[in-house]
Amino acid sequence: MPTRKVFVRLGVAAVPVGELIVDAEAGGRETSTFTYNPAWTARPDAFAIAPRMPLGLAPTYTNKASDGSSLPGPIADGTPDSWGRAVIKMALGGRALTDLDYLLEADDFLRSGAHRYFDSPDKNATALAPPKTGPGQVPIPRLLDLEQIIVEARAFEADPIHYREKRARMVGGDLLRNAVGTLGGARPKVNAKAEDASLWIVKLAKIDDQYAIARAEVMALRLAERVGITAANADVLPSSQRFPVAIVKRFAAANCLAVAPVVVDPAATVQYVVSGKADVATGDWYRTAERAKVMGLSYPTYLDQMGIYSKTGISKVEDLIGKKVGTVSGFLWVAELQKLLGSNLVLYPNPVALAQDLAAGRIEAAVDAYATGVYAQKRGGYPGIQIKVAEPDQRVQASIQAAQANIIYSKSNPEFGAALDDTIQQLHKNGGMAEILKSHELDPSGAEVGEPRLVK
Known about the structure:
This protein folds into 4 domains: 3-118, no CATH class; 143-249, 2-Layer Sandwich (Phosphorylase Kinase, domain 1); 266-302 and 403-447, Periplasmic binding protein-like II (D-Maltodextrin-Binding Protein, domain 2); 306-399, D-Maltodextrin-Binding Protein, domain 2 (3-Layer(aba) Sandwich). It contains 15 helices and 18 strands. It has helices at residues 38-41, 64-67, 73-76, 82-91, 99-105, 146-157, 163-172, 213-226, 266-275, 289-294, 334-341, 351-360, 370-377, 414-429, 432-439, and strands spanning 3-10, 15-24, 30-36, 60-63, 115-118, 189-193, 199-203, 234-237, 245-249, 280-286, 296-297, 302-304, 306-310, 325-328, 345-348, 365-369, 386-389, 403-409. It has a 5-stranded antiparallel sheet with strand order 4-3-2-1-5. Strands 15-14-16-13-17 form a 5-stranded mixed sheet, sandwiched between helices. A 4-stranded antiparallel sheet has the order 6-7-9-8, with helices on one face. The longest helix is centred in the C-terminal third of the chain and has 16 residues, at 414-429. Mean pLDDT is 78; it is low at 133-141, 170-182 and 254-260.
């Protein structure tokens, strides 16, 4: 199996951070081992590049089969997703590629994040991959030249049957070969240079947009800045199309910043926010009176209904009695279900463990958020399971009135909470929240949250 050693550095100064050894074969087994550079761990300003990769000399092992990528989390974050991968694969003739191939095929100057990769530990080693500036290569487009890109992007979107393939050909050909870097996601994006040579991400509108998403995104960044949060510079540029584009200045590499999100079980997330280990937490969090005592609760984002998951299509709480039923700790209905089902109710720390036991038949039914299950099922999850909205039952109040979901944040930062509230309310007013739900194949009526309320 081919083995490759890559030296990981940080920022424009290319500060040595560690060594990555990858054993990978396209279409086969892919694993890696990361070890911190002793010089990095000895620095007074050293930090772990991810919570699950603590500073020290012990290696971190990653396996694609079990971890989803053969690369450690913060390094995998620098690889492209759907759009960027299609571009790279098309440019290389369509051959099978490994995660490391995608990472190193991206231009060093354009790759997302602050991590950089070199072929040797030498001070003057070559960065991977060097910018493509030779004969036949295309320079990064200027912001002033974006109109041609916008027009071509829209033309290819108009043919949805061949959209993915043609989109890759567009940015992988002579026009924008060097502009994509590791940008990806569902929305078209390119890199571009301003007149002062600074690098910006350009987020283009999609053909089916119903409102100016660019304005909402830039508004959120400006609100963050106004309440004292350091945010990227952003602006809105008009275009010949119905909606403008958003431009966001890239800054991570120049400032040696590395994003290190904290991933914890739902049962531990609230404590992370309360203790100050996290400033804010995303997820399906309900607005409750108890939570309001210890943390900030944003304006409601959407309504989340109680769902019943089973192989037989159970929708009534009454039909759960006498069956082995599972649910996740922390939901509103837990206490009432415990009274109703007694020892037949099994509590789980997260939805993954719940889904595994339901699939294996260790429980006969599960109670979880309806929207979460529908979203997962449309992406291949919960095969053979029917997910129903729980019919109203006076014994379980969550089945009568759907809870309002929200974003939880530290109670010590009310200015941040005010900015969140303002942004969320604007998204409700301009239809943006309903569009977000719709884009994730959820019922847009869930955005009709009503006035904020607390569940007691």
